Amino acid sequence: MKAYLYDRLMSTIERRKLHQVRKLLLSSIGGRVVEFGAGTGVNFALYSEEAEVTAIEPDNTLREEALKKIGERRISLIDASAEELPFEDDTFDHVVITLALCTIPDPSRAIGEAKRVCRRGGTLLILEHIRNENKLLALLQDILTPPWKIFAIGCHLNRDTLSLIEENSFERISLNYFFGRNFVWGSYRNIK
């Protein structure tokens, strides 16, 4: 999918649900924030004025689109990989990952990096689609993932994202499911 088409193709689902969820997740956080996989910058307008955001996006075309959305906000956008972050340990108060873990080649390593750069007691805020608990729907996700990855910038519909997070000693604070338990949003605490 071409980056300039992403916002247009996602506009219906963004308008119906995702924008509302993003706003609930991001509008009240302040402090130092790192956002993994900023994509086209759809989250940027939703951060509070108290947030100092460092957004990473390894894709050049997506990063160019995201730059257009920064405006006057305290957001810096850098070319970096979630699996190898250029930050010191315990740098951030919050790590934000929205619809990005599905595209990261090594999500386990990325979650390990999130843990490393997030201070003890800091939060991991997520909005992700997840592997469905229903075996038949999970099988459908397995079947759809290979062609979907081609269309959707490497997205894996069938990742067991919540297990990856919890295996890295993040403590669940809250999770909310929607779209038939195919999507989840919520927060975790870094218990190092």
Automatic annotation (TrEMBL):
Keywords: Methyltransferase, Transferase. Residues 35-126 form the Methyltransferase type domain. One of its GO terms (biological process) is methylation. The keyword Transferase applies. PANTHER family: METHYLTRANSFERASE LIKE 7A (PTHR45036:SF1), METHYLTRANSFERASE LIKE 7B (PTHR45036). This is Type 11 methyltransferase. GO terms for molecular function: S-adenosylmethionine-dependent methyltransferase activity. InterPro entries: Methyltransf_11, SAM-dependent_MTases_sf, Thiol_S-MT. It holds the Pfam family Methyltransf_11. It comes from Propionigenium maris DSM 9537. SUPFAM superfamilies: S-adenosyl-L-methionine-dependent methyltransferases. It comes from the Bacteria.
